[in-house]
Write a structure and sequence with these properties.
By secondary structure, the protein is α/β, with parallel strands linked by helices. The protein has 13 helices and 14 strands. An eight-stranded mixed β-sheet has the order 1-8-7-5-4-2-3-13, with helices on both faces. Strands 9-11-14-12 form a four-stranded antiparallel β-sheet. Helix 6 links the parallel strand 4 and strand 5.
């Protein structure tokens, strides 16, 4: 926490706005609007944002939606909420994000076959934007709308612009593990005011105007609470600082591993600012001496938590049988990529401990 979150929360208690309406919510939406240059709706989660975003794009049962296979399940699951059909596409090695060439080729083939997907979800993984220009150009060429899942990339930039603001709909997350958090929460942004109004309407049970409880449409209980909006407001004030802290941790690890063979930081694409929300590294087993899994076990023994890079959707039991274009890059990244402790509050001595453990893992492997 940055320090001022509690002031906003106390204000909510003092004014008795302990509800899904109130001044913190209004202010949060205004702040997010200012940050993105668009209109925002505050929601209970990023997942809810993706779900409502797909509904705004008109996704219905049986429609195909393209999404990267390498992501957290929450990027993909809302497709199933609408009984639509995910089509998974591989990442490229340069960014770890959706491969624009594979997407373009896929759209071209599907256009020829007269079977274009109804939408594309682009995910900005681990704090780094996907290469949006070619992706947006291909989608525009074939008239396919784009939803940007920027859950992991708040504070990043793509050619000077904020992720989430370049597609038709953008989504952010304030989940507990994100770069800033409201303990749980999310937001949807769009340049279309009427879409954001619609998302807000759906998020509040889609209750028609008037005093009667009249419902013409299916709604959801997806609205953020005014109390949690207070936490988000305080956190937004320290977003830039958190970005600096996350980047400093990643670069500290990178520099400390400069002379260590077989461990390299996730590529930092030249077109934008990578927040390094998570410090992700690739382990080359031959050179490092240990596999990613063995390094994770070694770190666990030392009480250091680390995780593999996301398990691709096409390898998940839930998505068995889903069409997947490519997949080798995502599988490689999942097998060899490791996410190291990255919290903004990680003290320097803990960062050093992680560094020492990784050097020791390598040294022990050399001796064995
Ligand atoms: C890529 C990605 N998309 C979506 C989400 C969902 O966000 P939330 O947890 O706020 O529902 C997350 C994280 O949780 C995520 O990492």
């Amino acid at each position: 926490m940055g320090g001022r979150e509690l002031l906003y929360v106390q204000e909510a208690f003092r004014e008795n706005w302990l509800s899904s309406v109130g001044p913190n919510l209004n202010q949060l939406e205004a702040e997010l609007g200012r940050l993105s240059g668009l209109t925002a709706a505050a929601l209970v989660s990023g997942t809810a944002g993706i779900h409502l975003g797909l509904k705004l794009l008109g996704i219905k049962a049986g429609d195909e939606v393209v999404t990267p296979t390498l992501s957290f399940a929450a990027s993909c699951n809302p497709i199933l909420y609408e009984h639509a059909v995910p089509v998974l596409i591989d990442s490229n090695r340069e960014t770890w994000n959706l491969d624009p060439d594979l997407l373009t080729e896929f759209l071209r083939k599907r256009a020829d076959a007269g079977r274009l997907p109804k939408a594309v979800i682009v995910v900005h993984l681990f704090g780094q934007c996907a290469d949006l220009d070619p992706i947006l150009a291909s989608c525009a060429e074939y008239g396919v709308p784009v939803l940007e899942d920027a859950a992991e990339a708040l504070g990043a930039s793509y050619k000077g612009k904020a992720p989430g603001t370049l597609g038709d709909v953008g989504v952010y997350s304030f989940n507990g593990n994100k770069i800033i958090t409201s303990s749980g929460g999310g937001a949807l942004v769009s340049r279309r005011q009427e879409w954001v109004d619609k998302a807000r309407f759906w998020s509040q049970q889609a209750r028609d105007s008037g005093i009667d409880y009249t419902h013409s449409e299916l709604g959801y209980n997806y609205r953020m609470s005014n109390v949690l909006a207070g936490i988000a407001l305080g956190q937004l004030e320290v977003l830039a600082e958190r970005v600096e802290q996350r980047r400093a941790i990643a670069f500290r690890y990178r520099d400390a591993f400069a002379d260590l063979p077989g461990i390299t930081l996730m590529p930092q694409a030249p077109y934008g600012l990578h927040t390094n929300w998570l410090s992700c590294f690739l382990i080359e087993e031959e050179r490092f001496g240990l596999s990613q899994r063995d390094l994770i076990s070694f770190l666990k023994e030392a009480n250091v938590e680390s995780r593999p890079v996301w398990k691709p959707m096409h390898t998940q039991p839930l998505y068995q049988g889903a069409e997947c274009v490519g997949g080798d890059v995502a599988e490689h990244l999942n097998r060899h990529g490791i996410c190291l402790p990255s919290s903004s509050s990680l003290p320097l001595e803990h960062q050093q401990f992680v560094i020492d453990c990784i050097w020791e893992a390598h040294a022990q492997a050399q001796r064995a």
